[in-house]
Amino acid sequence: MTGEEVRSTLARNIKKLRTQKGYSQALLAEKADISLPFISSIEQSIKWPYPDTLAKIASALEVEISYLFTTEESENQNREFSITMIKNLVEYQKKALNEFGETYLT
Question: Cα dist. 88→1, 9, 81 in Å?
Answer without folding.
Answer: 33, 32, 11
